[in-house]
Amino acid sequence: MIAKIGKGENLYGAISYNQKKIDSENGQVLLLNRIPETLDNTYSTSYLHQCFEPYLSANIRTEKPVRHISLNPDLADRVSDGQFIKMAQEYMERMGYLNQPYIVFKHTDIERTHIHIVTVCVGLDGKKLPDSYDHPRSMAICRDLEQTYNLIPATEKQRTGNEQVFRPVNYRAGDVKSQIASVVRHLPKYYKYASLGAYNALLSLFNITAEEVKGELHGQPKNGLVYFVMNEQGEKASNPFKASLFGKQAGLDELQNQFAHVKEKMKADPVRTVLKSTIEVAMHTTTDEADFKKQLMEQGINTVVRRNDEGRIYGMTFIDHESRTVWNGSALGKNISANIFNDWWNEQVIGQRQDAEKVTAQNQSTTAGSSTAIDKEGIHTLFDFLNKEQATDDLWIDGLGGLLPESQGEDYEEQAFANRMKKKKKHNNRKFRAN
Q: What are the residue boundaries of the MobA/VirD2-like nuclease domain, all occurrences included (predicted)?
C-alpha cells in the first residue's frame, strides 16, 4: 500500500476535491472523526469546512495546517469498506491524529479503489501536532497494515550497501567530465522514462542536459548525443561531452530503444493513477507555482517546468522518486497538461500584477519579478530535498551500474560529434601543416 501526505493551506479546496468525486457518484464518505453527523448523512463542502474552523482559528501561525492523505492498496487487493475504515483509524491514531477531526473519503473513479483523508495538524489548544519524519513513520505503518490485512506489499528497494548521495554537477569545481559520469552512469539505474524530454528532466536536477546532434558517417546520416553542464540560469556552462565517454547506455540509439520499451510498460503502471491523483490534489489545494512544487516535493515528487523564451509553459514533467518513474503531464491526463498549468499560473501572475498596479509602481515591479524568482528557486531546492531524504528514509537512489541494455558499437557517436563540431577545424589544421 502506498501512502501520500499532502501539506497545504487550502482546506476548502481539499474538501471540494473529494466532494466532486461524490457528486459524480465516484466517491462516498466512509467515516467522520470528531465531526457531527447530519440527519440525512449528506455533507456539503461548506458544512465540513465549518467543522474545522475552531481548529484553524486556534492557530493562525502555522502556514500549512491542512493534511490531505491518500492510502492506495495494490490494484489486485480487495478491501471492504469496513477494512478501509479500520485501516484509516489505525493509520491516523499511529500518526498522532486520534483526537483530530478528519474525514475519510472512498474514491472509485479509477480501477484502484482507495481512500483520501482530510484533516488539520493544529489542535483546539492552538498547538501544532509534531510531524517530524512523518514520511518514514507513514511507511512503517503501511507495512504493518499490509500484514494485518493481507495486502500485497508495495515494492521497496533492496539496500545494497553501495548507496550514495548524488549531487548536482558544479561546473566551477573542475573535473566536469567525472562529475557528469557519476550521474549519467549510475543515477538512471532505477528510473524509468519514456522520452528524451523526460530523461532531460531527470538530468536537470543535477545541472545536466543531453542534446541530439546530427552528422554523417561514410555518407550516411547519423544521429548522436552530447551532454552539457548547465549553470544556475539554465544555460550551457561547459563544452559538449560525447555520450560515448559515459558508456554505451548513454548513447542515443540505446536510449531510444529504452524509451520504446519503457513506454509500453508505463501505460499499464498502477503508479500512474496514484501520481495523477496526488497532482490533482495539489492543484486543488495550492495557490501558486511555488506552493504547488513544494507540496509535491514533500511527497517525493519533483516538478520540472519547461518554458520557451516568451515564458510560455510547453512542458510539465513529474519525477516520482518513490516509484522511480518520470512522467510527462500529458501522459497522466489532459487536465495535467502544460496548457492547463500555463493558463492557471499566467492568470495568477496577471492578477498579481493588477493588484500591484493598484498600490504603487514599486509594488508592481516586485510582483512582476516573482515569477522569475519561482523559476530560479526550483532546482537547487530540489537537490536539498533529495539529499535530505536520503538521510531520513530508504526510498531514494542506490546502487551502481546501468539501467539500459548494452548496444553494439558506439563509434557513430564519436563520428557524429566530430563531423558536427570539429570537421572544419581539422581541415584547416591539415592545410596549415601542408604549407
A: 45-151
Residues of the domain holding 180: 157-435
Q: What is the pTM of this model?
A: 0.71
Residues 425, 426, 428: CA angle, nearest 5 degrees: 65
**Same-domain status, 284 and 354:** yes
HSE at residue 43, side-chain half, CA atoms within 13 A, is 26
* Backbone φ, ψ for residue 160 (5° rounding): -105, -10
- 378 forms beta bridges with none
Same domain, 141 and 194: no
Same domain, 123 and 215: no
Residue 330 sits in the same domain as residue 429: yes
* Cα dihedral 337, 338, 341, 344 in deg (nearest 10): -100
60 CB neighbour count, 10 Å cutoff? 10
* 94: phi then psi, degrees, rounded to nearest 5: -70, -25
**Domain stop point among 115, 148, 181:** 148
Instruction: Answer yes or no: are the C-beta atoms of 255 and 404 closer than 8 Å.
Output: yes
pLDDT of residue 182: 84
What region does 207 belong to: left with phi over 0, alpha with psi -120 to 50, or beta?
A: left
**Secondary structure element (H or E) that encloses residue 119, with its range:** strand 114-120
137 is written with which cell numbers?
A: 513513520
Q: Domain check: are 209 and 188 in the same one?
A: yes
Q: What's the N-to-C CA distance of the chain in angstroms?
A: 74
- Of the residues 94, 117, 148, the one at which a domain ends: 148
For position 358, what pLDDT does the model report? 59
CATH number (domain holding residue 40): 3.30.930.30
Q: Tell me: do 187 and 138 sit in the same domain.
A: no
308-321, pLDDT tens digit by residue?
Answer: 989 999 999 999 98
pLDDT at 267: 86
